[in-house]
Design goal:
The structure is a homotetramer.
Chain A lengths: L1 E6 L3 H13 L3 E7 L5 H9 L4 E3 L3 H5 L5 E4 L3 H13 L3 E4 L7 H14 L3 E3 L7 H11 L6 E9 L6 H6 L3 H4 L1 H12 L3 E9 L4 H5 L5 E8 L4 E7 L7 E8 L2 E5 L8 E4 L2 E4 L6 H4 L1 H17 L7 H20 L3 E2 H7 L3
Parallel strand pairs in A: 1-2, 1-4, 2-3, 4-5, 5-6, 7-10
Antiparallel strand pairs in A: 7-11, 8-9, 8-15, 9-10, 11-12, 13-14
Helix pairs in contact in A: 1-12, 4-5, 5-13, 6-9, 9-13
Organism (chains A, B, C, D): Propionispira arboris
Protein name (chains A, B, C, D): Myo-inositol 2-dehydrogenase
GO molecular function (chains A, B, C, D): nucleotide binding; oxidoreductase activity
Chain lengths: 341, 341, 341, 341
């Protein structure tokens, strides 16, 4: 039985707490910590049988019976907490992104390497049944040599402008998942990025210096070209589709709905909208990523989303930002060189 | 927290044990009992944190801290165990069917009535997301006045001949779920049944006196006609579809798959087969039916599948058997009269 | 070049006239005849380049340059015109049904046999791309041994009560196409029929002595069971689906729409309704059936829908009528015996 | 009745000849001309009732009874024949592209303007039922403000290397249809193009100086961004899909197949491959574009694909070529300026 401590019990911390309690074998949440701990959050913890609730995360790090830590604090805390937890001898699961700063991610990577502890980044979509079906088919050679990879990723609603301002921008906050998907589905690395960004949802997002809509073209080391289309708002819900096309065929996934019921009536043949947003769509994936992390600890195998997997999408995101800003394709070599990688 | 005892930990007993441990809030399995208890089953129980494992179910009934009992023993034990558990003051969840004998079901109904305890029958499909989507649309009046109800229900593989011989026959063992679905989706009662049965899967099933394929037509009290098509074997997996057609439109559901990935290749555009069988297809429904049962206990509300709901499909099944045997439509009145109902 | 005369230029006669002019190679309409010929119909004929327009069909039969006749008059004229045309040495394409009277159909069959002329009945659905895809797969053995055949056939709107009264009843007017489909898809003959009819669309149809909704179960000589569901009105349009299920799999077809466009919006994911009715749905099939008839004449091969194919569905329809009236399964042997067949 | 002459009766010339004979009202092919006229092509013409067959197209231009000319000769002949035919007083339907040379297209535009004759370019996809369904929904405001437009366009097999060498390159030969689609679906103009081209199908195509795979991003005047993905070879057939996403929803189309039959078997749930290539997929569109051209002549209305519509996609194609070659986004302004537009 792996004892887990969760640092940060906002929305995503609670998702993990509940899915560990309900779905993850051989693991239990022993303690949670949050500086804004209150009656409500204590009651939530107790309802899951979690007895230890702290405002100070250091109590979790100091508890020798806790094997692993989930870092679900705000993004700016991800890298310092990662380092501190690893140094305290804990296995670490860190929500994405590790950091917006490449320098800080590099520090985390250094500590991961020397710590001998497991480190996994929260790219939950790798554990989704649909995306996995593509990845497995591609890895098994079913589609032959890859030629074109397409990802559609649209949110049902934009974040608040306050969040937009601290998010690192759409490419680092939202598209980062899609950059990870390109790497995951292709099993290859990105060499060049061209991003065409626009503001079509809310002018305030533009005024905050960000885009809310984008088409991003990525040239891959394996010779394939990937294209991502993003929008911060789709009125019909969370749009999460992908396709890998190759010499032996194409494999594609579409959205999931709460049922497959179809109503044929006077106004057409109507199916349900996609599941609303990431919590609904990736509910099972959240449980499976933690189960996978727990499994890596127990069996002492590499995690399926390594610290390096946490670094790469941030580099791609920085390239996309630069590309959109300068309206030219940006080589990843250029980005790596700038950061001494 | 509702304490539950499970009597019988074969396949379906274990499904319930695991889903309660993993998914059902406000409930825990305190004890299991099985006459064939062995190392393996004890280990299984312990892995879920169930400490009390008995060969004699009476220990469960005698435990005053146990609130509710799940009866997952063989069918011939369902009705006596139901009565004994109710009389011991337990709420009872009983796997379907309550019994093949109408007389025994009547006895159970009598005890349920006087016991003041909750009683729920294991018609799990009522808790499936797809079937529920139809039921809710119909109940909300979306399809208008019902005209035609269609259910396709085909298993991926036939049971063993040994099981066929004691199963009560396909209509009582397999179609019984579809009879329940007709009642659930329509919200109406069956008045007449015509069953055309045949043996197309395995002659040995015919030699055992049963059919393995059937088309069953049911005339309903609300004026609609329902039709069920059954087969004990579909080479592509568990086929579970339904449609309700009415004056304002038709609502239909199709099968679920493990992913919605579609592969376009030289040989066509290939989607995944349906989920293999009932354990895969109705995994969530099994958890939800117990959650619903627990909820009915906690909130003291009627269960969503009553003892009466356990009786009706058996009556319809007996009518279907008689119809297939005599090759004529059988009125439910005729069946009810024969049993003094 | 086959010269064709069309007798009767109501709706279906015009469909054939136009499709021959536009789509059928090696054939042309030389003359049309209709007792209600007027300015409008003459203009229609001229617009297709048809110069000869008569009120008296006998002028068509007397024209030695006309090779073949299409009988598109009212149903009661089908059999006498068939006989007269065959005796005049014409190949005959006759709209369905040949007649409601088995005696009259038998007379037609006798004349067909001795005439040495081609005779084809207008079961247009045999020439539809979707139904053909099923038939070809079944005939090729792709589904293995047939077990269950399902046909859904619902009209977008009921005919007028005046038409209902002379139509011969729903089973002979509408279901007759589905009876033909059962024979066509299965390649087998019907041995027994059970029809559960009801009036759910319009009480006036019931007052006229007919049903407007039905589930018909058919036991086939090849061991399979077929089931047809019919309704005179589906608010979402013409519903024409089918499925053949066998030991190696199931093949099914769904409706066609005017485009496959799907709109994802706030209210769901909306596809188009089915094509409205038979003219839209079977436009190409109407052309292909005549092309097939023309081809049979030119190559001197049997027609793909013979006079015998015209007789069988009427027998099945009579069995269905009797079954619904007497509420019992009716053997086709019983029907055949009654007509000395 | 509009009399038509066809210049060039290779593959596409014959498609038009047959569809005019079979499907286009108020028009007939009076003459065809082809320098390579032979027994075979004369027999083909005669079979359609076309009596006048010439090796010299000037005979068509000299025939005062011929109203309109279809230019189906090789691409290098399109612009000189357009000019000559217009000057001979004929309405002109010209296969795409008008020319690879902007200068020559400009000359054609000048003659079109002064001639007072109809001129239509052969962008057949505008007349396809699926693409039209998107265009109509967009034009009707159903999707709100456009944000993202996606077009997938993949051929089943690459052209010969000989053809590749004279084709003008993939962007001008194949993608040109997709550039037209972007303009047609959006009703807006392209302002900037970024093309990422690669060679993934056949190295010989690369050696011939062309690409066979591409992702092209287009920024539109209306604020939307479009993305096209192309490949010269998809092993599953002709892949022609599109989607327009906007503030009120997304509308998308998928491929057409010869039937919608689906086979569920041991290896999955298998639908048919898309229709093989453009002749199969756009059969009806070819007829409808000529019917539309004929209609514009008869009613003296503008054609639905003007000479200007013939120019724009070539400009976009030249921008795409330049973008791929120089690996930077190219403004259409830059291209227009280079050609004095």
């Amino acid at each position: 039985m792996i004892n887990i401590g969760i640092i940060g019990i906002g929305r995503i911390g609670r998702v993990h707490g509940e899915s560990i309690s309900n779905h993850v074998k051989n693991a239990q949440v022993k303690a949670v910590a949050d500086p804004f701990l209150n009656e409500n959050s204590i009651a939530w913890a107790n309802s899951l049988g979690i007895k230890e609730t702290y405002t100070n995360y250091k109590k979790i790090l100091a508890d020798p019976t806790i094997d692993a830590v989930l870092i679900c604090a705000s993004t700016d805390q991800h890298s310092p907490l990662s380092i501190e937890a690893l140094q305290a001898g804990k296995h670490v699961f860190c929500e994405k992104p590790i950091d917006h700063s490449i320098e800080k991610i590099k520090e985390v990577l250094k500590v991961v390497e020397t710590s001998g502890k497991k480190y996994q980044v929260g790219f939950n979509r790798r554990f989704d049944h649909n995306f996995k079906a593509i990845q497995e088919a591609v890895a098994a050679g079913q589609i032959g040599k890859q030629q074109i990879i397409k990802i559609t990723s649209r949110d049902p609603e934009p974040p608040s402008i306050d969040y937009v301002k601290i998010s690192g921008g759409m490419f680092l906050d939202m598209t980062i998942h899609d950059f990870d998907m390109v790497r995951y589905l292709s099993g290859s690395e990105v060499e060049e990025v061209y991003a065409a960004g626009s503001v079509t949802v809310d002018p305030a997002i533009g005024q905050a210096g960000d885009v809310d809509t984008a088409i991003i073209t990525l040239k891959l080391a394996n010779g394939a070209t990937a294209v991502i289309d993003n929008c911060r708002q789709a009125c019909y819900g969370y749009d999460q589709r992908a396709e890998v096309f190759g010499t032996n065929g194409a494999i594609s996934i579409k959205n999931d709905s709460s049922s497959n019921a179809v109503f044929s009536g006077k106004n057409g043949v109507v199916a349900e909208k996609p599941l609303f947003f990431f919590l609904e769509r990736y509910m099972n994936a959240y449980a499976d990523e933690i189960a996978s992390f727990v499994n890596a600890i127990i069996k002492d195998t590499p995690t399926l989303v390594t610290a390096q997997d946490g670094l790469e999408p941030v580099l791609i995101g920085l390239a996309a930002q630069k590309s959109a800003a300068e309206n030219r394709p940006i080589s990843l070599k250029e980005i790596r060189a700038a950061y001494g990688l």
